[in-house]
Design goal:
78 residues; mainly alpha; 3 helices
Length: 78
């Protein structure tokens, strides 16, 4: 179960990152439905692994890296 503070933080991160994550996924996949699936997977990974960020630049870098790894399973996983 996620507490209220964590829910609020997740919502704030989602609002900051969803446009970038979706646009990058759409550019990579070329399909809106696949892009939505990729975006969902990236956010679920963040939630399930309880990822925390030092600052917004770290947050942005994590999303780009995680998304790239998810979309290209041939890359080495961390």
């Amino acid at each position: 179960m996620i507490d209220q503070k964590r829910k609020r933080l997740i919502r704030e991160i989602y609002e900051r990152q969803i446009d970038r994550v979706y646009r990058l996924a759409l550019m990579y996949t070329g399909d809106p439905h696949d892009a939505e699936d990729v975006a969902e997977s990236v956010f679920l990974t963040m939630i399930e692994k309880k990822i925390t960020f030092e600052n917004e630049e770290h947050e942005k870098a994590w999303f780009i890296t995680s998304q790239t790894e998810l979309q290209n399973p041939c890359l080495p996983q961390k």
